[in-house]
């Protein structure tokens, strides 16, 4: 989820894209707003075998409620990123795995929702998502920031599921002291692989190459990195789940259309 600090609010609000659509960031308001550009599409419409677990459209996230702008659990991406992600999935299917989607395009209003939450004392989800740091440190440590690459339409948060049940291959023997393991049993039961921490774990365990992981978790992280890299997705080494397609179709634009059903 790490929302890299990319520019000041003023700069992002005034920037134009380098593409023919010339789209600016729209004012943040209620859950209405700009229309989805034609060059964005639903990834699961392209391939229904890609699993969707879009947690910001539910209460299964670090805020504990649906996030502004997520009116439906749909993964939208700009066309080149969407097509490349489907190619990743197809290659993984041949190896006995598949992609599960946690987050894709993210409206700017959602990022602002995160920022507003981070400025409050509310921390009901602390034990599940950031047990080893204080909420007041989330900005300083880079877990929350004012703008997200997700809003440019080429960044995704993903994991892997296994096509056939193989507990020995999917489950780690290491519990990492119980840090960020709230979803452990549920995710394993659903066939998701063990990556050594839950998705959106605001902790050093989320670093892709963290040394204190089981061999199973290390292998799963490397498998995901390799599969994504083969189609042009670059991993953020602070978060095992976070990838950005390169070159980005809209490198200077932060979109704010709400996520709705097709």
Structure, explained:
- The protein starts with 8 loop residues before the first helix and ends in a 17-residue tail after the last strand.
- It has helices at residues 9-14, 43-46, 79-93, 108-118, 126-129, 167-170, 184-189, 215-229; strands spanning 40-42, 51-52, 76-78, 97-103, 155-162, 233-235, 242-245.
- The model is unreliable at 2-24 and 26-32 (pLDDT under 50).
- It contains eight helices and seven strands; from the N terminus they run αβαββαβααβαααββ.
- It has one domain (9-245): Muramoyl-pentapeptide Carboxypeptidase, domain 2, CATH 3.30.1380.10.
- The strands form two sheets. The protein has a five-stranded mixed β-sheet with strand order 2-4-5-7-6, with helices on one face.
- The chain is globular.
User: Helix-strand pattern, N to C?
Assistant: HEHEEHEHHEHHHEE
User: What's the overall geometry?
Assistant: globular
Count of helical segments? Answer: 8
How much of the polypeptide forms β-strand, as a percent range?
A: 5-15%
Number of strands: 7
> What value does the average pLDDT take?
86
Radius of gyration: 18 Å
Quick one: CATH class? Answer: Alpha Beta
The largest β sheet comes out as: 5 strands, mixed
Count of the separate structural domains? 1
- Report helical residue fraction: 10-25%
CATH third-tier fold name:
Muramoyl-pentapeptide Carboxypeptidase, domain 2
Structural class: alpha+beta
Describe the strand arrangement of the main beta sheet, using strand numbers: 2-4-5-7-6
Unreliable residue stretches? 2-24, 26-32
| Reported CATH architecture | 2-Layer Sandwich
N-end to C-end Cα span: 25 Å
């Amino acid at each position: 989820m790490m929302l890299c600090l990319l520019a000041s609010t003023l700069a992002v609000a005034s920037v134009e894209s380098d593409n023919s659509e010339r789209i600016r960031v729209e004012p943040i308001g209620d859950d209405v707003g700009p229309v989805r550009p034609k060059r964005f599409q639903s990834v699961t419409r392209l391939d229904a075998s890609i699993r969707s677990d879009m947690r910001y459209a539910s209460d299964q996230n670090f805020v504990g409620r649906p996030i502004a702008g997520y009116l439906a659990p749909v993964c939208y991406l700009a066309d080149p990123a969407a097509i490349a992600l489907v190619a990743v999935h197809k290659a993984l299917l041949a190896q006995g795995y598949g992609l599960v989607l946690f987050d894709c395009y993210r409206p700017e209003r959602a990022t602002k929702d995160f920022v507003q939450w981070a400025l409050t004392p509310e921390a009901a989800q602390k034990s599940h998502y950031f047990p080893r740091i204080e909420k007041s440190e989330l900005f300083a440590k880079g877990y929350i920031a004012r703008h997200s690459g997700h809003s440019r339409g080429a960044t995704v948060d993903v994991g892997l599921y296994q096509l056939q049940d193989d507990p020995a291959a999917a489950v780690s023997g290491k519990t990492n002291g119980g840090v960020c393991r709230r979803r452990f049993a549920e995710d394993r039961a659903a066939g998701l692989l063990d990556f050594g921490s839950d998705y959106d774990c605001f902790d050093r365990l989320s670093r892709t190459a963290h040394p204190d992981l089981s061999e199973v978790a290390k292998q799963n992280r490397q498998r995901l990195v390799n599969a994504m890299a083969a189609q042009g997705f670059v991993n953020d080494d602070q978060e095992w789940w976070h990838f950005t397609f390169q070159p980005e179709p809209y490198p200077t634009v932060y979109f704010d259309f709400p996520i709705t059903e097709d």
